[in-house]
């Protein structure tokens, strides 16, 4: 699967389709948190960024293009191999490390992202603690994940896995966290959490940012 990551029609097709929408969300979160200029090209200039569960770098690369000094970590070494190979092709300087968040060994970052990862981890409370510990004072954490609803079961398991849009067995619906559950995990480690933003899908418009959090959502949290 590692080599297939950057194929927009391959097994990560869904993540490719999510990318424009989640970059728009991240851009707005970055500009609002650091009071940036929404028209600037490099809102992350001078900022360190950690992307946890980076896969082959689908998000890490655009974050580097926004000016961030980006580190990506992923539990699967073959994904890190694919990520490093792709960054070399595109000429981007990104630090990639295999492992969980512990791979960064106590370092802290201005922006920490972990999109579509926590639904795959065995111990979400411990994972959230690791994310929070990696956020520098004054920093920002952005997480996205599927909600645990009848809609997410239908769309992501029955339809997406049933038709092969997402590889079968990718998701365990019972592990999905609702926004209140994920918010509670973040608050338990001292983070201040903003209300969730929805990532919804319609046949006519594809993926869009919306108030509808039934399918998938973002949470933004700050230290303090
Ligand atoms: C669905 S992919 C998302 C990739 C990327 N964040 C994106 O949205 O394009 C989930 C990734 O999380 C990684 N992963 C799962 N559990 C992890 C953990 N505990 N620490 C770091 N990476 C993890 C997997 O290897 C996989 O690459
Ligand atoms: Mg997932």
From TrEMBL:
It comes from the Bacteria. Keywords: Methyltransferase, S-adenosyl-L-methionine, Transferase, Ubiquinone biosynthesis. InterPro entries: SAM-dependent_MTases_sf, UbiG_MeTrfase. It holds the Pfam family Methyltransf_23. One of its GO terms (molecular function) is methyltransferase activity. One of its GO terms (biological process) is methylation. Coiled coil: none annotated. The keyword Membrane does not apply. NCBIfam families: UbiG (TIGR01983). This is Bifunctional 3-demethylubiquinol 3-O-methyltransferase/2-polyprenyl-6-hydroxyphenol methylase. It comes from Sphingomonas hankookensis. The lineage of its organism: Bacteria, Pseudomonadati, Pseudomonadota, Alphaproteobacteria, Sphingomonadales.
